[in-house]
Amino acid sequence: MTTDSAGIVIPRDTSLGAFYRDMNTAERRTFWACATGWALDGMDFMIYPLVIGTIIKLWGVDAGLAGLAGTVTLLASAIGGWIAGFLCDRIGRVRTLQITIIWFSVFSLVCAFVQDFNQLLIARAVLGLGFGGEWAAGAVLMGETIRAEYRGRAVGSVQSGWAVGWGLAVLTQAVMFSLLPAEQAWRWMFAVGVLPALLVFFLRRYVEEPTIAAQTRARQHESGDRPSIWEIFSGPILKTTVLASLVATGCQGGYYAITFWVPRFLTTERHLSIVNSTGYLAALIGGSFVGYLVGAWLADRIGRRNLFLIFSLGAIAVVLVYTQMTLSNEVLWVIGFPLGFFASGYFSGMGAFLTELYPTRLRGSGQGFCYNFGRGIGALFPFLVGHLSQTTTLANAIAIFAVVAYAVFFLAAYALPETRGRILSADT
């Protein structure tokens, strides 16, 4: 590791796996805890998009209302993420992570027992509070535990756990809908979502609070100068909060516009059965997983900002090809890989980027708010796509909202500074 005149860390080994080979025990435990949590979080969230067609058919729900359940989950996650971020700065990163994992696991199980769509809507909203909080706590924990030279690759590789969770959800769908009638299979999928709660036992025993976070809270306790939940909206930090929130809005709005409705697009406009669509989703998920890993490597190689600019343009191009061109099912399957690649890979730089934008005393609040503000506004996209699809094709609706979102992502990222290699301390 070398450091330039501005105090920015320049990594000597830029290979993707370098960070893992050089990790100490504490870093590895934190890495696996957060990666597993993010994978199971992704599994819990993606279950609903996969069963949305069954819900529409069984309960006679129109597409717009069905999309509203996804929107409500994401809106609640925005509130949960901000609250969890604030709690990270007050009670600690690890403790907050434990609370959020138990929360969304329990309410995933509740979803398995609902008796009508209104009950499901409420259960998904309450689940969303923990879902949003888990990312906020885990991202800050990882960002502060991992050294500056490896932060992009390590945090980005944790992000790839989402694709693993998505894959687990699709695999669960294939198994459950093959073995059980549809009216039972969707309930068992939600029941599987309780599994993340087991991770809390590992967190309690093996994962420690980052030193700089503990030192900062101790200093605040002695001085009585604890940060206000509104401090991220004051002074010079306000501009950072606004632009970072727009970055998070664009990247998540585009992602949710695509991934929430692609399963429905495949079964309606491409006329594939639920089981037959699994292969197409596998291509999308495979591209997503590779995108996360490549994005993690690029975050340290070319910087967080350049990663965002390149992938936002790539996502616009591929989503237009996927939805607007006349393609055979075989070609559509192939295009699914680059669609997943560009629509997911930029997330690998997001956690490290937001961690490096804020000082330690405000890191949880700032990171939790910005990412989850974006999640909340992005939450409107599943509903809006579903609503627009009633007057045009679902393919057109997906394309319109995805392109708008990625354009916002590009412009906001361009306006923010590069943060690669920033050294974090209890004072910064």
What can you tell me about this protein's structure?
The chain has a single domain, classed as Growth Hormone, Chain: A. The chain is globular, with a radius of gyration of 20 Å. The protein has a two-stranded antiparallel sheet. The protein is mostly helical and 428 residues long. 77% of the residues lie in helices and 1% in strands. The chain has helices at residues 18-21, 25-59, 63-91, 93-111, 117-145, 151-159, 161-179, 182-192, 199-206, 211-223, 237-259, 262-268, 278-301, 304-324, 329-344, 347-357, 360-378, 380-388, 394-415; strands spanning 2-3, 9-10. Helix 5 (117-145) packs across helix 16, helix 16 (347-357) crosses helix 17 (360-378) and helix 18 (380-388) runs antiparallel to helix 19 (394-415).
Q: SSE order, as H and E?
A: EEHHHHHHHHHHHHHHHHHHH
Largest sheet: 2 strands, antiparallel
Low-confidence segments, given as residue ranges, are: 3-7
Which CATH top level class fits?
Mainly Alpha
Radius of gyration: 20 Å
| Range of helix content | over 70%
Strand arrangement, largest sheet? Answer: 1-2
The assigned structural class equals mainly alpha
CA(first)-CA(last) distance: 20 Å
Q: What is the H level of CATH, i.e. the homologous superfamily?
A: MFS general substrate transporter like domains
Shape: globular
Number of E-state strands: 2
Mean pLDDT: 84
